[in-house]
C-alpha cells in the first residue's frame, strides 16, 4: 500500500507493509537528511483522521519537520518543538518557508560573489581538533567562501536561513565522513573520495528551490505557516488544554545519537544556531531525551512500568540511559496531557529497540505511562521500517528496528487502567541480511 487505510480498516495490533516505491521526498521533505525520521505517510494519515479546520496541531519532538510539512496540506495551525537547535533550523527551512523568488534571486547573487579564499585554519565551530580529518583543505576553502558569500549578500532572515540549510545538505557528502552509515566517522578500511563542493552544491540548491515550488502546489490555501519553537518536550511552552492533536515520533531508545549523526553539519552551522563550541555540542548530546550519557544523576524507573521492564531486558551498560529515557518520556506524557484538550488525540510512533538481551517492550511501557497520565490507548498498529539499521548492528542483535508502532491515545480526565500488552513480535533479520 502507498497510503495508510482509514482507522476503522486497521485491526488492533495489525502490522502493515508500505510500498518501498512510495515517494517520501516531495515538497521540502527531501531538503536535508535527518536520522531516523518517520515517513510522511504517518503524519498525513493522522491529520486526515483526526484534524479539523482551525485545529491546533503540535509535534513535541519535531526533528526535521515532517509533521509540519504535511500540516501545510490542511487548514490547521501547526507548532513544532525540539531541543536540538539544528533540527529546529532544518524544520523552519522546510515548513516556515521563504518566498520562492526571493530565494532564487539571493542564490544567484551568492554564486556571483562566491570567492576563492585561503584555507581557513579550522571549521567555524571552536574546539574542533584536526579539521583536516573531517574536511580536506579544498572543501574547507570552498565552504568558507560560500558561507561568507551568503552572509555578504543582502536578503531577509528567512531566505538566509533557508540557504544555510540548503548548503548544509551537501556537507556530509563533501566531508571525509562515510556516506553509508548514519554515524559520523571516517572509515580507514573504505576511504572516501568526496566530490568538490562547487561540483555538487549548485544542483543541491536548485533541487531545494524546486522543492519549495512543489510545496507551494501541495499547500492548502487556508493553512497557516507553522511555527518552530526551540524548547523542551518535558516542559512544553504551550497553553493548558489548548491542543487538538499531537503527532510525533520521539527519539528511539538507545539506537540513534541524533546530534552525533549530524556532527559534520554542526561543525559549520553550530555557531549559527547557538552551538558555538565543541563543548556546547557535547552538552546538547547529554541534554537530549534518550541521551547515552544523560546529565541527570537521580534516575528511577517510572512506577507505572515497574514489573514490565527490568535490568534483564537491557544490557548493563545501557540500563542508565534506558531509565533516563523512560523518565524523560514519562515527564513529557504528563506535559502532553496538560496541553491536550479533553478528548484530544495523541498519535505517537515508537520502535521497539533490539538489544543483545532481546526486544525491549517499549510500546507497552509507553501505553502504561500514558494511561497513568490520563491518556487512554484507543488504537495501536505497526508498520515495517524500511531502513533497519539505526547504528552499527552488533551481530544482528543491536541497533536494528524492524517495526514502528503507531499508538493512538485520547485525553481523558483521570488515569485509566493499564491496557493489555501489545504483540511482542520477536522478529529478527536472517544472518545473510545482517551487516556484521
Give a verbal description of the structure.
This protein has helices spanning 41-50, 66-71, 85-95, 100-113, 131-134, 137-152, 157-168, 171-174, 197-218, 258-261, 263-273, 278-287, 319-339, 362-372, and strands at residues 15-16, 56-59, 77-82, 227-230, 243-248, 340-351, 354-355, 358-359, 375-384, 389-394, 398-400, 403-411. 36% of the residues lie in helices and 15% in strands. Strand 2, helix 2 (66-71) and strand 3 (77-82) form a beta-alpha-beta unit. The strands form 3 sheets. It has an 8-stranded mixed sheet with strand order 1-9-12-6-5-2-3-4, with helices on both faces. Strands 7-8 form a two-stranded antiparallel ribbon. Strands 10-11 form a two-stranded antiparallel sheet. The chain is globular, with a radius of gyration of 22 Å. Mean pLDDT is 88; it is low at 389-398 and 429-436. With 436 residues, it is α/β, with parallel strands linked by helices. It starts with 14 loop residues before the first strand and ends in a 25-residue tail after the last strand. It is built from 14 helices and 12 strands. Helix 3 (85-95) packs across helix 7 and helix 4 runs antiparallel to helix 9.
- The overall strand count is 12
| Major sheet characteristics | 8 strands, mixed
Number of helices: 14
Chain-averaged pLDDT: 88
Which SSEs are present, and which pair or pack?
Layout: E1 15-16, H1 41-50, E2 56-59, H2 66-71, E3 77-82, H3 85-95, H4 100-113, H5 131-134, H6 137-152, H7 157-168, H8 171-174, H9 197-218, E4 227-230, E5 243-248, H10 258-261, H11 263-273, H12 278-287, H13 319-339, E6 340-351, E7 354-355, E8 358-359, H14 362-372, E9 375-384, E10 389-394, E11 398-400, E12 403-411
Parallel strand pairs: 1-9, 2-3, 2-5, 3-4, 5-6
Antiparallel strand pairs: 6-12, 7-8, 9-12, 10-11
Helix pairs in contact: 3-7, 4-6, 4-7, 4-9, 13-14
Amino acid at each position: 500500500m502507498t497510503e495508510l487505510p482509514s482507522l476503522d480498516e486497521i485491526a488492533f495490533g495489525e502490522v502493515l507493509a508500505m510500498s518501498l516505491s512510495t515517494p517520501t521526498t516531495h515538497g521540502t521533505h527531501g531538503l536535508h537528511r535527518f536520522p531516523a525520521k518517520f515517513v510522511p505517510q504517518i503524519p498525513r494519515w493522522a491529520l486526515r483522521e483526526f484534524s479539523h479546520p482551525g485545529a491546533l496541531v503540535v509535534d513535541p519532538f519535531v526533528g526535521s519537520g515532517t509533521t509540519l510539512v504535511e500540516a501545510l496540506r490542511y487548514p490547521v495551525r501547526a507548532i513544532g518543538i525540539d531541543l536540538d537547535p539544528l533540527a529546529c533550523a532544518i524544520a523552519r527551512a522546510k515548513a516556515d518557508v521563504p518566498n520562492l523568488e526571493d530565494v532564487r534571486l539571493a542564490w544567484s547573487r551568492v554564486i556571483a560573489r562566491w570567492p576563492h579564499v585561503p584555507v581557513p585554519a579550522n571549521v567555524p565551530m571552536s574546539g574542533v581538533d584536526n579539521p583536516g580529518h573531517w574536511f580536506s583543505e579544498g572543501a574547507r576553502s570552498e565552504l568558507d567562501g560560500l558561507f561568507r558569500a551568503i552572509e555578504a549578500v543582502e536578503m531577509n532572515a528567512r531566505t538566509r536561513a533557508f540557504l544555510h540549510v540548503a548548503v548544509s545538505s551537501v556537507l556530509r557528502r563533501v566531508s571525509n565522513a562515510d556516506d553509508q552509515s548514519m554515524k559520523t566517522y571516517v572509515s580507514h578500511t573504505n576511504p572516501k573520495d568526496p566530490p568538490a563542493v562547487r561540483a555538487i552544491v549548485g544542483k543541491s540548491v536548485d533541487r531545494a528551490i524546486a522543492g519549495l515550488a512543489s510545496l507551494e502546489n501541495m499547500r492548502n490555501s487556508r493553512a497557516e505557516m507553522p511555527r518552530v519553537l526551540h524548547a523542551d518536550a518535558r516542559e512544553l511552552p504551550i497553553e493548558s488544554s489548548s491542543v487538538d492533536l499531537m503527532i510525533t515520533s520521539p527519539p528511539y531508545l538507545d539506537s540513534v545519537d541524533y546530534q552525533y549523526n549530524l556532527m559534520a553539519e554542526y561543525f559549520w552551522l553550530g555557531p549559527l544556531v547557538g552551538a558555538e563550541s565543541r563543548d556546547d555540542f557535547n552538552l546538547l548530546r547529554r541534554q537530549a531525551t534518550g541521551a547515552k550519557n544523560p546529565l541527570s544523576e537521580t534516575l528511577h524507573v517510572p512506577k507505572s512500568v515497574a514489573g514490565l521492564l527490568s535490568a534483564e531486558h537491557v544490557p548493563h551498560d545501557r540500563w542508565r540511559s534506558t531509565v533516563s529515557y523512560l523518565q524523560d518520556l514519562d515527564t513529557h506524557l504528563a506535559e502532553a496531557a496538560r496541553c491536550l484538550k479533553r478528548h484530544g488525540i495523541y498519535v505517537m510512533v515508537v520502535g521497539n529497540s533490539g538489544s543483545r538481551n532481546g526486544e525491549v517492550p517499549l510500546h507497552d511501557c509507553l501505553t502504561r505511562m500514558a494511561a497513568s497520565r490520563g491518556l487512554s490507548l484507543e488504537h495501536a498498529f505497526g508498520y515495517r521500517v524500511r531502513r533497519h539499521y539505526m547504528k552499527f548492528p552488533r551481530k544482528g542483535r543491536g541497533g536494528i528496528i524492524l517495526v514502528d508502532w503507531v499508538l493512538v491515545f485520547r485525553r481523558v480526565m483521570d488515569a485509566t487502567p493499564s491496557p493489555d500488552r501489545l504483540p511482542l513480535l520477536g522478529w529478527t533479520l536472517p544472518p545473510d541480511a545482517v551487516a556484521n
